[in-house]
Each structure stands twice: as structure tokens, then as C-alpha cells.
């Protein structure tokens, strides 16, 4: 293994092993590597939506307080390396190569056992744990759950704090087709005696989560019960709100990420960092400076172009609400592409609340839905479908008037393809 390209190719080659839930392979790897997971101070973040934004808010606050923070997130939006980052900066190609040189032989040893091969996600989780514990030790690490929680490869970690952002219908073919079943999987990251902070609001899902917390003696800190966000005021560059816990009021907190859902994510991050005894000034500054790509991201102001990675009904609902609230006067044009294993019918029910012109397309993925099929499923009139997104995107941008806006959405994987192109084109 001599180059970064070879290292990346080896990691991505693991995608052929698909998804294999279960922690046995990870436990075996950790034991062989000398139990690096035991040397980390981890904040473990699960939930359906808002994980990446919540991770970013917490990381930014801890950075303001002077701490060195490692983050593990997925999927990547701009570069693969950003999945393992230090203080928001992706690890270098050289470090990625070095990591693969260490992890690959151990992975090959595992393949000779009955446990079989590591998946791509298990490999990158292992690399992140090893890097933060052995190669570049951190004050704190924030790990985002990949899928579900109970059987996710990140669940071998022993956190100091657990967060479950919310519960929605996503990955129902794997996690279950009801809110309660999905909540059961997400609640699998709750650990004995470790505080849990949650933004879950549906009563049935919350009951599953609080029951699990009670069963393992984890103190559950619940939004709208133990802490609140009030006085939300959308301002031109973001949101302003008040955080309230007991007799503590943090007034006029400001974030630059858009939408009521981001206020909630910021409140979760505020609660988490208060648990770690972070000062108010660091919370204020950290919230204000936090940025996470692909979440109602304005890539151009005039004419207005917005990117959003919402890929399930709940995510699309908050996207539509925020767009309709903020940009009432703009005529909307929407370029949409998505994976076929998503709740597309329910996503379209929400999207139809955007009064606009819809253009359907597709991107490179074995799981992608065709543009034509999306147009049919949408039940919308006057839609157009294009297999290749580049020509239509160029047309849309070049013809966009001042009173119009372009929204590019449907999948984070779609944005991964779009963003490098936009950087060159805009």
C-alpha cells in the first residue's frame, strides 16, 4: 500500500460486503488493536435527523473552550477524509494512508476467522477510534451513529454522554416500520449510568427511550421537560433564541444555520456542553461559529441557490417549512434526486407543499431511483426528468431570475456529486 488512492480504493472496496449488523467483528478488532476504544472521552450521537448538525454545534463549542475535538460523521459531502476530522478539519491523505497500513493487516486476519469480513463502515469506524486514541489523542471525541444504534459499529464505544436527536421514519427495511421499532434500535446506544439527552418528542418513541434509560439507570434529560428553547426569531443570517433550563436563561443565542430544527439541535448541543461544565461565553461563540455543509446551505445569494440533504419525510418537512417561512416571495425551482429505498411517497407529500417547478434527475449509486420513476411517484403535473443532472443544472442556474430560487435536494449523496461541480461553476 503506497498511495492514498490505493488506501481509499481498499476502504471503498469493502462496500461490496454491504451492511452486516452486529458488534462481534468490531469487538474482535478492538481486542487485537489493544482496546483503543477504552482510551476515548466519547459523546455518542444517534437519532434519525440532525445528528451531523448537533455534532457540529458541540464540536464548535468545545473548540471555543480550548479543547481538541475529534469527530466521526457520515456520509462525507466534499471529501472522504472529512468523516474523520480534528477541530473540524479532515485528516490528511498521509494520515489516511498510514491508518490503512495499520488496520488492513488486522482486517485480513479477521477474514480468516468465522466472523468474516469487515464492512466499509466498520473499517472507517475502526480507523477513527484508532486514530483518536493512538495516533492523535483528543480531549473529546464525538461519534455519530451510522444507522440505527443497537447494532451499529459505533456502539462498542463507552461514552461519557449519549444524545438521541429525534426519531423519524428512515431505513424502515432495516430498523422496522413503526416509530416504536425504530426507537428501540436508536435506544440501543443508551448505556448504564451514562446521562442521555434527547430531543425526541413523539410520545410513543419517547416512552421506548425513557423506559430503556430507566432500565439501565441512565439519567434522561428531555427537551420540553428538562430544558427548553424559546423566543425563536429568524434573522437574516440565521436564528436567534433563548435556552432555558431551570433558573438558567441564555438569552439571544445566535446560530447561522437556518430553520427551527437547527434551533432544536443547538439546544441539544447547549444542554450537552452544560453537562460538561462549559462556560456561557464559549457556548455563545461556539453556536455562532458552527457550520455544517448541505443543511439548508446557501451557496449563492443572487440569484439564490440552496442545497439540502434531507432524505426522509421528517427532513423534507422541515426543509419545506423553512423555505416557505424564509423565502415567501421567491418563485421556487427544485432539482431533486433520491435513493429508491427511501420513503419517497411520503417525501413527495411534503415536497408538494412547495409551490414550485420540479426537475427530477439521478446520480451515481447502485441504490439510486431513476429520474423517470421519481417523476411518476411524485404525482406532480408539469415535471421534467433528466438522467444527467449537469446540463439541466447549468440551464437552471443560467436562467434563474432575481425573484426565483433554486433548491437542490433529496439526498446527501446527490450533494456529494453536486458540490465539487458548483465550486468550479459558480
UniProtKB/TrEMBL annotation:
Residue stretches in coiled coil: none
UniProt keywords, alphabetically: ATP-binding, Folate biosynthesis, Ligase, Magnesium, Metal-binding, Nucleotide-binding
Cofactor(s) in the UniProt record: Mg(2+)
Recorded metabolic or biological pathway in which this protein acts: Cofactor biosynthesis; tetrahydrofolylpolyglutamate biosynthesis; Cofactor biosynthesis; tetrahydrofolate biosynthesis; 7,8-dihydrofolate from 2-amino-4-hydroxy-6-hydroxymethyl-7,8-dihydropteridine diphosphate and 4-aminobenzoate: step 2/2
SUPFAM superfamilies, sorted: MurD-like peptide ligases, catalytic domain (SSF53623), MurD-like peptide ligases, peptide-binding domain (SSF53244)
The Mur ligase C-terminal domain, residue ranges: 294-411
PROSITE patterns for this protein: FOLYLPOLYGLU_SYNT_1 (PS01011), FOLYLPOLYGLU_SYNT_2 (PS01012)
GO terms classed as biological process: folic acid biosynthetic process
Catalytic activity: 7,8-dihydropteroate + L-glutamate + ATP = 7,8-dihydrofolate + ADP + phosphate + H(+); (6S)-5,6,7,8-tetrahydrofolyl-(gamma-L-Glu)(n) + L-glutamate + ATP = (6S)-5,6,7,8-tetrahydrofolyl-(gamma-L-Glu)(n+1) + ADP + phosphate + H(+)
Keyword Mitochondrion carried by entry: no
EC number, as in UniProt: 6.3.2.12, 6.3.2.17
Superkingdom field: Bacteria
Mur ligase central domain boundaries: 45-272
TM region positions: none
One GO MF term: metal ion binding
GO CC term (a single one): cytoplasm
UniProt subunit comment: Monomer.
Similarity comment: Belongs to the folylpolyglutamate synthase family.
Protein name as it appears in the record: Dihydrofolate synthase/folylpolyglutamate synthase
Species this chain originates from: Heyndrickxia camelliae
Lineage of the species this protein comes from: Bacteria, Bacillati, Bacillota, Bacilli, Bacillales
